[in-house]
Structures are given as structure tokens and as C-alpha cells.
Design goal:
The model is unreliable at 1-7 and 700-715 (pLDDT under 50). Among the domains are: 2-57, no CATH class; 75-91 and 294-323, no CATH class; 93-281, Penicillin binding protein transpeptidase fold, CATH 1.10.3810.10; 645-710, no CATH class. The protein contains 26 helices and 18 strands. The protein has 715 residues and is of the alpha+beta class. A hairpin with a 5-residue loop joins strand 1 (77-80) and strand 2.
């Protein structure tokens, strides 16, 4: 309206000024100017108010300050062993929360001295800091310094971008004032110290203390407190690891500020600075490595957590994952496997022989140790313990023999180990024994202990592949098994985890327990998110499980694992060697009453390890070394014998009750009621027996030396 009046060619105001007295004209002009000034002022205030309202409308909620939950804090997921010890972490920001009471007073004073001297006086904004920053920015011709208080820094870290604009500074100031009204100075300081970045991917004073000095924040001294406080402004620029000279200069500035405020004396400041120079010169500040004590197991856990909870929760949600891993056993597994692989790969050129070892508690299903290869690197992340499917060779035979025992066979029943051929799709298949020999009539025990292939194939004919597969699946084999007679020789591929888990049924008296790796998971507030309990199912009669255990004890005492384990291992143990064709895979899967483990050795590509590199030679020694270390200090225990089991003396050749002519006898295990009633007719004194006796003596048949003849009879 005023503008309209003044722009009229003949407006009444101009007409009045021309005719009014001079004094009145001046008064009118002053009033008009005041009116214009007020209008401009109110318009400006309105505009500023509108801008402030828009800024305030866009302000975020202060909820992230009320607790440490949520993505704003990006807390690492921690993974713990069975005894509660930390195994490792998954994170994008490495942070460990602490209470203000755990933070040294010297660190608080150092931070106040260098970052915000007015912190305990101002209400969120340090006007001295703002004026200083304003003058600096004027001289620089742009925004170079923020002048932010500690409260403003916390607000910026939690809620705002790092963009240097006046809009962000206004929002920062408004939020800081709001924060100061809602929280105490102590609460603000605690959250600030837990949020601030200290370089090298480390967030918060506890993680920084651990990274730079290898200690908890509460144990820091003046030298270390001043150094950390100096990092806050520019942690990369002042890092003592990458820029030691800059760190030294920055720490000196912090100490000078502390002395100016009366926190320390000048002598203390000088002494602390000299101490830092000495530490930097001697290279005492190096930065600690991340904890990761079981890399293959950690990656195994990571994949399953990310699949269930998603990457955001995994890396930022602060999960607390309590696993089944036993660190003592894990160390034993890593040592046993790595030492053997180093020996096997010595002087070998080209591809490296790999291996895997996995151990479980047969009663709980807890995975106690897991090593998936020769070393976890960016090029070697395949976890062969759970991801590699390989032919188990004769290590598969116990499933066949378990089915046979369950169907009425006994260890003393006999099989014919004689040449046999079977029609195939393209040609006949003629199974062979490892030693190229045939041994005539052999008991089931002898066929298993010495891993006689042809006898086992004949047993598969009797039991059938379909029934054998049913038993293997029931016991824990999940991989696809082909229903052919050659399955008796372990021609279908399986994983070490499957084998160890399935053999656990024998150790656990016929009870299958599903493998478990996570016991429970809690969130950062301690709320239980997941809890896993052992899932048990009886899949074999306890008597059948024990009979197979006793037969596999024979593998260790007299059979293919005698030299590697039986002669050197002082605990009751049972198991089975396995070697695939062309010596491409070497296995030993075995157990004590307390622990079951599977060891595998081979190339990642299916090529031969070399002649005579069989399971009893290559894998069994690894198993023995692991068990010795893992069970050290554990009381020796025996395999429990079910009530319906009995032991009867039989002829070791015919499996029948012995007569006087049976020179070599053995105590055999039977389900009560299945023991033999007939007497051996093969060994009777008289003229007709003399040739047989001579043959027995010459060949050492039935004696301890027998295992020397057949000891490597596996495939």
C-alpha cells in the first residue's frame, strides 16, 4: 500500500508535503520512515521465523539418545565361545559401550580442554567458540571451522550430516539446546565418549583404548588420555600410527590446554609429552588386530546370522551370539591339522593338499571345533568341513554294517571274500580288495576291521542299498546317496560334518542329536532373541549302536587304524578309516565316549594324493593328535554296555562256538539271544586237520600278526 502511494504520479502524500509547513513535513517523513523500518523488520522477522519453523519441523527425534539401541549406534555383533570367551566380532563400526564411571577423569579433562572449555557452563552452545569460528571463517572466506560444543558434536554425529552449511549449523544449535534441557551433562558426556570416532575403524573410547594401547579405558594414564582427546578433531590426520609427528604436536596442545585450565601442572604436561615421544620412538603404539580365534567357524556363523537377521542387524545391531565352540578343542584342531598339512605339503609344488577337521559332542550335538582348511584367507575361504562333498570310501561301511546287525546279522556271521562280478550299464563291475587278495570265509567283524571290500559288497547284496541309505539318512547323512552296490565302498559324496554327526549316533547309544552351533542370541539390551535346545531322536537300538562301537574298536585295536591310533592312543576309541579310489580322499571318522570327530585330507580337485596315501596313513594320525590335545585333562571313560548285550567266546575264523582244535579264539559281542549255538567243525584235531594247522601257522592266521597282513586292506 505504501509502495502504491509513493509510485502514484499524483499521490496525496506528495501533494500534502508540497503544501504543508516545513516542520510538519519533517515529522511526517520521520513517521513514514519509522513505519517502513517496522514493516521491514517485521517482514524480516517473519521470514526468519518461517525459516526457523521449517528447520524445526525437519528436526529428528532424540530417541537415539535415550538408549543405545538402534542403528544410530552401530554396535558390533559379538560371538562367544562355550565358556563365554569372545571369539570374534562382526561390525562396520568397532565400538564397545562403557559407563561414564569407567572413563578416567583425566580423559574427561583432556577432552574438555581441547574440544569445549565452556562445556559445564553453557546450555548447549558455546558462544565463545562460535565467535572464534565466525572470525576464522570470515578470514578464510568460507566455512572452515565449526566452533561446535561437545553437545553440538554429539548432535551432529547422531542426527545430522557432515555438510558445512548455515542451515545445518542452525539445526545443530537448536538440537543442542533441546538436548541440554532433556539430559544431564554427565549423560551427554557418556554418550559422546561412546559415539566419537578415533580412526582406524574404531568408535568410542573403550574400543580406542583397546586398539591403540591394548587396555581398558579405565586403565589409561595421562599420556594416553591426552593422545586420545587429541584424535577427536581429526583422527586420521593425528593418528599416532600413520602420522606420529602430528600426533605428538596435537597431544602437546591438549596437555597445554589442561595446564591452562589448572587440571595438571606444567611439569606434568611436559613429562607426559616426553613419555609420548619415547613411546612413539620405540614403536609401542601399533594398533591391535581384530579378535578372530576361529575364522572358518566365524564365517560359518556369519553366513547363518546374515541369512536369518539380515546384514543391517548383523553388522550394526549389537547381537550377542553364544555358540557351542570349545576354544581349547578349537586350538587342538587347528594345531593337529595345520602341522599335518605342513608336512604333507613340504616340497610339493603346485596345488596344495587341503584338509578339514570337525568335532562334536555326541550327547548334545554341540560343534566343539571346526577347521575348514589350511588357513582362512581371501583366496581360501571354502569351509571343507561343511561345504565340501567328497567320497568317504570305507568310512561309509559302518552304516551298512549297522543295518545288517539291526536286521539280524551278528559280528560272528561269515561272508565269502571271493571274486565276483556284477552287470553294469556299459560293462561288468568287479570289486577288488585293497591288497589284491581274497581271504575266503571271513566274519563281519574281520571284514569291517580290515576293510575287506568284496565281502562288504556281498553284505550290501544281502542288506540292499535302499535299506542302507535309509539307515544312513536316519543317522544324519543328508547328501544324495546313489542306490548302487558300490555304495558299500563309499562312492556317494558326503561332508565331514555329516559323517561326524552320524557317527555320533554310535557314541550316543543310538540317539541322534542334531548338530548345533548357536546356543542362544540376545540383543544389546539383553533380550533373548533365540534359544536352541538339543533335539534328540532314537534312530538305532542301543544294542546295535554298541555292537558297531565294539566292532569299530576292533578297527583301532587290530585293523586299519592300529598303527596310527591303537598303538599310541590310551583311551577307549572306535572309528573307521576311509580311502576313495585313486587315493583322492583320505578319511578317519572316530569317537570316544565324550567326543566324535571327522578328519579329511585331499586336494580341492579330485586328483590322487599319491600311492598308499590312505585314511589310516594320512587322516588317522591327525584324528589321534587332535583327540590327545582336546581331551587332555578329561577323565578316561568307557563305552557303556547295554543290559541286553553279552560276550561269548567264539572261533575267530568260523564265528562259531570253539572246540579243542580252535587254537585262536576271540570274545565276541552279541545281542542276547543271537549268540551261536553250533560248534565249529572247521578246526578238529586229527590227520585231516594237519594241513589246515600248517597253513594257519605259516600264515599267522588268527594271531596278532594277522593285522600286518590285512592292515591296509581298505578302499
Amino acid at each position: 500500500m505504501i509502495f502504491y502511494i509513493f509510485t502514484m504520479k499524483r499521490n496525496p502524500f506528495s501533494y500534502y508535503l508540497k503544501r504543508a509547513p516545513r516542520k510538519k513535513r519533517i515529522i511526517v517523513i520521520i513517521k513514514v520512515l519509522i513505519l517502513i523500518l517496522l514493516f521491514t523488520l517485521f517482514a524480516g522477522l517473519g521470514a526468519i521465523t518461517g525459516v526457523l519453523i521449517s528447520y524445526i519441523r525437519d528436526l529428528p527425534s532424540l530417541e537415539p539418545l535415550e538408549s543405545y539401541a538402534g542403528a544410530k549406534w552401530e554396535l558390533p555383533t559379538k560371538v562367544y565361545a562355550l565358556n563365554g570367551e569372545l571369539i570374534g566380532e562382526f561390525f562396520q563400526e568397532k565400538r564397545e559401550l562403557v559407563a561414564l564411571s569407567q572413563i578416567p577423569q583425566r580423559l574427561i579433562e583432556a577432552t574438555i580442554a581441547i574440544e569445549d572449555r565452556q562445556f559445564f557452563i553453557h546450555k548447549g552452545i558455546s558462544f565463545k567458540g562460535i565467535i572464534r569460528a565466525f572470525l576464522t571463517n570470515i578470514r578464510a572466506g568460507g566455512i572452515r571451522e565449526g566452533g561446535s560444543s561437545i553437545t553440538q558434536q554429539l548432535v551432529k554425529l547422531l542426527f545430522l550430516t557432515r555438510e558445512k552449511t548455515y542451515q545445518r549449523k542452525v539445526q545443530e544449535a537448536i538440537l543442542a539446546i533441546k538436548v541440554e534441557r532433556m539430559f544431564t551433562k554427565e549423560e551427554i558426556l557418556e554418550r559422546y565418549f561412546n559415539k566419537i570416532y578415533f580412526g582406524h575403524g574404531v568408535y568410542g573410547v573403550e574400543a580406542a583404548s583397546s586398539w591403540y594401547f591394548g587396555k581398558h579405558v579405565e586403565d589409561l594414564n595421562l599420556v594416553e588420555c591426552a593422545l586420545l582427546a587429541g584424535l577427536i578433531k581429526a583422527p586420521n590426520r593425528y593418528s599416532p600410527i600413520t602420522h606420529p609427528k602430528a600426533a605428538e604436536v596435537r597431544q602437546k596442545a591438549v596437555l597445554r590446554g589442561m595446564a591452562e585450565l589448572g587440571y595438571i601442572s606444567k611439569e606434568e604436561a611436559n613429562s607426559a609429552h616426553e613419555e609420548l615421544k619415547k613411546m612413539l620412538k620405540e614403536g609401542k603404539i601399533k594398533g591391535s588386530l581384530s579378535i578372530n580365534q576361529a575364522p572358518y567357524f566365524m564365517e560359518f556363523i556369519r553366513q547363518r546370522l546374515e541369512e536369518k537377521y539380515g546384514a543391517n542387524i548383523l553388522y550394526k545391531g549389537g547381537l550377542r551370539v553364544h555358540t557351542t565352540l570349545d576354544l581349547k578343542m578349537q586350538e587342538a584342531a587347528e594345531k593337529a591339522l595345520s602341522s599335518s598339512l605342513d608336512r604333507l605339503n613340504k616340497n610339493r609344488k603346485g596345488k596344495r593338499i587341503e584338509g578339514a577337521l570337525i568335532a562334536l559332542d555326541p550327547r548334545t550335538g554341540y560343534i566343539k571345533a571346526m577347521v575348514g582348511g589350511s588357513g582362512f584367507t581371501s583366496e581360501n575361504q571354502l569351509n571343507r568341513a561343511v561345504q565340501a562333498r567328497r567320497q568317504p570310501g570305507s568310512a561309509f561301511k559302518p552304516f551298512l554294517y549297522a543295518a545288517a546287525i539291526d536286521k539280524g546279522f551278528t559280528p560272528a556271521d561269515t561272508l565269502r571274500d571271493e571274486p565276483v562280478s556284477y552287470p553294469g550299464a556299459r560293462s561288468e563291475w568287479t570289486p577288488q580288495n585293497y591288497d589284491g587278495k581274497f581271504h575266503g570265509l571271513v566274519t563281519l567283524r574281520k571284514a569291517l576291521e580290515h576293510s575287506i571290500n568284496v565281502a562288504s559288497v556281498r553284505l550290501m547284496e544281502e542288506v540292499t542299498p535302499i535299506v542302507t541309505i535309509e539307515y544312513a539318512k536316519r543317522m544324519g547323512i543328508k547328501s544324495r546317496l546313489e542306490p548302487y552296490l558300490s555304495l558299500a565302498l563309499g562312492t556317494s559324496e558326503v561332508t565331514p560334518l555329516e559323517m561326524a554327526s552320524a557317527f555320533g549316533v554310535f557314541a550316543n547309544q543310538g540317539i541322534r542329536v542334531e548338530p548345533m552351533w548357536i546356543r542362544h542370541i540376545k540383543n544389546v539390551d539383553g533380550v533373548l532373541l533365540e534359544e536352541n535346545l538339543s533335539l534328540e531322536e532314537e534312530v538305532l537300538p542301543g544294542e546295535t549302536a554298541y555292537i558297531l562301537t565294539d566292532m569299530m574298536e576292533g578297527v583301532v585295536k587290530r585293523g586299519t587304524a592300529r598303527r596310527a591310533i591303537g598303538e599310541k592312543f590310551s583311551r577307549p576309541a572306535a572309528g573307521k578309516t576311509g580311502t576313495s579310489s585313486d587315493f583322492a580322499d583320505a578319511w578317519f571318522v572316530g569317537f570316544t565316549p565324550d567326543l566324535v570327530a571327522a578328519a579329511w585330507i585331499g586336494y580341492d580337485r579330485r586328483i590322487s594324493l599319491g600311492k598308499h596315501m590312505a585314511g589310516g596313513t594320512v587322516a588317522a594320525p591327525i584324528w589321534r593328535e587332535f583327540m590327545e590335545l582336546a581331551l587332555e585333562g578329561t577323565p578316561v571313560s568307557e563305552f557303556p554296555v547295554p543290559e541286553d548285550i553279552c560276550f561269548v567266546d567264539v572261533c575267530s575264523k568260523s564265528g562259531l562256538l570253539p572246540q579243542s582244535g580252535c587254537l585262536w579264539r576271540t570274545k565276541e559281542v552279541f545281542l542276547r539271544g543271537t549268540e551261536p549255538a553250533d560248534y565249529c567243525q572247521r578246526h578238529q584235531f586229527g590227520e585231516s586237520y594237519l594241513p589246515e594247522l600248517v597253513r594257519i601257522v605259516e600264515e599267522g592266521e588268527g594271531s596278532d600278526s594277522e593285522s600286518d597282513v590285512l592292515e591296509c586292506g581298505e578302499w
